[in-house]
Amino acid sequence: MDAMAERDRDRRNTRPSPHDPLLARHREALDLFTERVHAIRPDQWDDPTPCTEWTVRDLVNHLAVEQMWVPPLVRDGRTIAEQGDALDGDLLGEDPVAAWDEAAAAAREAFTAPGALERTVDLSFGETPAEEYCAQITIDATVHAWDLSRAIGVDERIPKPLVDFSVRAVAPYAAELEKSGMFAAAVEPPSGADAQAKLLALLGREV
Question: Can you give the residue ranges of the Mycothiol-dependent maleylpyruvate isomerase metal-binding domain (predicted)?
Answer without folding.
Answer: 27-148
